[in-house]
Design brief:
The protein has about 170 residues and is mainly alpha-helical. The chain has one domain. The chain contains nine helices and no strands. It is elongated, with a radius of gyration of 19 Å. It comes from Trieres chinensis. InterPro entries: ABA4-like.
Length: about 170
């Protein structure tokens, strides 16, 4: 399948969204750490590698689209209206930039849920039975997973000071 309107991204060596799409899978490293190694001493650091990479990819891709594309004109991108966002997402590079944005924030939310639950003393059983399903929701449905954690799970975990002293 060939995507109509697929153009090179100038700041990424002329690669386009289809060329860069496989890099999205790097985020799975972070999610695997959240699920299988939440207490590993290197999880807080290693789980930031993919979001940092994707944040740079996002920045370069968005800047390429806005300032260096064939029809680039940052002043014409209307982020204040639904019509403007729909127009942006008709462009394959726009969809890619939007998806990378989601990937970064979902991973950072998943990381926060993981680190917060560990810091508040969530044990292995609680992690497997409650936190992992919440992480799945955060991965697949972003805000819904975070909301479930904040509204339903977090109130039942120990405050940070008590978790550290016990």
């Amino acid at each position: 399948m060939t995507l109509e309107g697929l153009r090179p991204l100038a700041l990424l060596g002329g690669l386009n969204a289809a060329d860069l799409w496989p890099t999205i899978n790097l985020c799975l490293v972070s999610w695997l750490l959240f699920v299988f190694a939440p207490r590993w001493k290197h999880t807080p650091t290693v789980s930031l590698i993919a979001p940092l990479f994707h944040a740079a990819l996002y920045s370069l891709s968005a800047t390429s689209m806005m300032f260096f594309g064939d029809d680039a004109n940052a002043s014409e991108i209307d982020f204040g209206s639904l019509e403007g966002i729909v127009t942006l997402f008709k462009d394959p590079n726009g969809v890619f930039v939007g998806w990378v944005h989601y990937v970064v924030y979902d991973a950072l939310v998943g990381r926060w849920i993981t680190m917060d639950s560990v810091e508040r003393g969530a044990g292995t059983a609680l992690h497997a039975l409650v936190i992992v399903p919440v992480l799945f929701l955060a991965l697949m449905f972003g805000p819904s997973g975070w909301l479930l954690y904040m509204a339903v799970v977090r109130p039942f975990l120990l405050p940070v000071a008590k978790a550290k002293s016990s």
